[in-house]
Design a protein that fits this description.
Layout lengths: L3 H43 L20 E5 L9 H10 L4 E7 L13 H18 L4 E7 L7 H8 L1 H15 L3 E5 L10 H16 L33 E5 L14 E2 L12 H10 L9 H5 L3 E2 L1 E5 L35 E5 L1 H12 L12 E4 L5 E9 L5 E8 L10 E5 L3 E9 L11 E3 L4 E3 L3 E10 L2 E12 L7
Parallel strand pairs: 1-2, 1-4, 2-3, 4-5, 10-18
Antiparallel strand pairs: 5-8, 6-7, 9-11, 11-14, 12-13, 12-17, 15-16, 17-18
Helix pairs in contact: 2-7, 3-7, 4-6, 5-6
Length: 487
Amino acid sequence: MSNPSIKAKDSHIVSTANFAPIASIVVASALLLLSNSVSFAQTQKASPAVATAPNLPKPDDRYKADILLIVAHPDDDTGVLNYITRASLDEHKRVAVIFSTRGNSGGNAAGMEQSKAMSNEREMEARRSLALSGIDDVWFLRGTDTATQDVLHSLETLGHGEALEEVVRLIRLIRPEVILTWMPAYVAGENHGDHQASAVVATEAFDMAGDPTAFAEQVNAPRRYYDINNYGEGLHPWQVKKLYFFSDASHQEFLARHGPTYLASDISTSKGVSYATLNHKAWELYATQIDPLLDYYANMPDHLVLAKSLVKITSPEADVWDGIDATPIAYVPPPGYHADPRSPMSLELGGPWAFYKHFQPAHAIASSLSFVKPQTAFSAYSQLWIPLLIHNDTDQPRDLLLKSSLPDGWTPIENTMYHVDPHSSYPAQLFLTRTTPLPASAGITQTPTSVMPVTPTQDLHWTLLDQGKPTGEVSLTVYLEYNGVPQ
């Protein structure tokens, strides 16, 4: 017989033997876990703590503006005072102003000071005058005041590239939603090329400030923004949402219905008087430039032309702020320059007219200014400059005849033959004078409440002939002005 106790003992021994390998595995696993824990702890102890990068400073809100006015001279702001005063004082919009010159030319109605001394005075006049409208952020570029009607001459004396760089920089600093500027077009009564030059730079800067490749050093992040001896300006690309033009054309009515109009007779809600009254006070602070037509200018409406809007609007004539909110928008590149097809032999107006013919579609403003027809102005005791471009796009030289057709009262111009080489252009420069005085209606009419210019017009015409056959023609409307042109 078997011994029960031995069976029980054997049973116990067998059971223990069966679990021995499992126990070994558990012990080994525990040792491995302990080893890994020690290794991890040692690694953690040897590694540095995770650093936290400092928060980057936000763009400087001291200079953030809603509206940026870009003009040429101290006193040009008076061309749009009805609106900027309303926007600043009554609508609590922040308005900033850039002047491309300091007004170092022209007469001085207040004293003997001229040139640089007068520009010092005019800078102070501008700051004091704009302060009446609640506008304190005023910037001056280093352009020189140039008495010319030719925008290309003004761009030359302004220093086109340097001025554009600085205006792009200021837009990226100021971050406006809207830009207001003079109208970049050659129109009668717009008697200063500097006005147009500031508009050209403003339009270009509108289309460049949002482009990170334009003046890329401005949007380059500085290596140590908190230190000296640094480089990279630390700005950010900025896309402005709307661009508006205004003009001091002598025939203001043609500007109406292409954008909003703001009346001088409206009452300022913050001041309780008309904008005309406020305009008059602002004008008076420009003592070096007091104009005999001050009452007329102070009462003029502001006709704004909507050049382009990158946000959805209800209509072109809606308020400037229509469709705008605080949300930044993405960069919208302009179309850029594209050569227009033309006939093998052709004729066109040269100088500023040819420039604008290419400039306006390149910046997508041609449709906005389609109502502006080729025109100029003439006043007594002056010459009228007419630049023409004669093009020969054939493979052979051409002798082309230019024939003038002028109304009575102009000194006749001989028909002239021009030799034009293949694939080249001949810039013909014409200077016209009158044999008779200006018409009696070319003056001003004054009533007890206003002074209104009267500007009769005449059309001048040129035809280009190739072997007696017309191959090109241009026309130009001339306003016989009451005021001196150029300024």
